[in-house]
Design a protein that fits this description.
Elements (H helix, E strand, L loop, with lengths): L7 E3 L2 H22 L13 H20 L3 E3 L2 E2 L2 H13 L5 H9 L6 H34 L1
Parallel strand pairs: 1-2
Antiparallel strand pairs: 2-3
């Protein structure tokens, strides 16, 4: 077995937020099935349910923090601040995630027209090379048969 495994690649910190939110929602649904709120007599406070919720949330946080060394976000190693940011966004409950836009913009350089032109030139050259390979594939068998 290979001792070195590839990291799980996430495209953005929003992917980590999505995973964390889905894990928490799934755990909440399982908790609702296992300990329904209707099981309490009317008006009685349940000390057991909040304790179980806290333990489950601690377990999820510990699991995700242990998984961070095996995650790469946008090609960079994931760190604890991404998990905390993901936890803060999911616990605040706002679906906008405006903080993601700021984080994503910091990962990009401003547009450079010279690099854009160089890229277009390289794509033209690549197209020409593809055309040349196609011509050789058409012509080479006949030339080899004649020789």
């Amino acid at each position: 077995m290979d001792p070195h495994h590839r990291k799980i690649d996430l495209q953005s910190p929003a992917d980590l937020t999505y995973l964390q939110t889905n894990i928490q929602l799934s755990a909440q649904q399982k908790l609702e099935l296992a300990i329904p709120a209707s099981a309490n007599p009317a008006g009685a406070s349940d000390a057991f349910r909040p304790q179980v919720q806290r333990l489950v949330q601690d377990y999820i946080a510990q699991t995700l923090s242990l998984a961070l060394p095996s995650l790469a976000v946008n090609g960079l190693d994931a760190d604890g601040s991404m998990l905390l940011a993901a936890g803060a966004r999911s616990s605040s409950g706002d679906g906008n995630n405006n903080n993601n836009n700021v984080e994503d913009e910091s990962n990009y350089e401003p547009y450079d027209p010279r690099l854009g032109e160089k890229l277009r030139t390289l794509y033209r050259q690549l197209e020409w090379e593809h055309t040349r390979v196609a011509e050789l594939r058409r012509e080479a068998p006949g030339a080899a048969a004649r020789a």
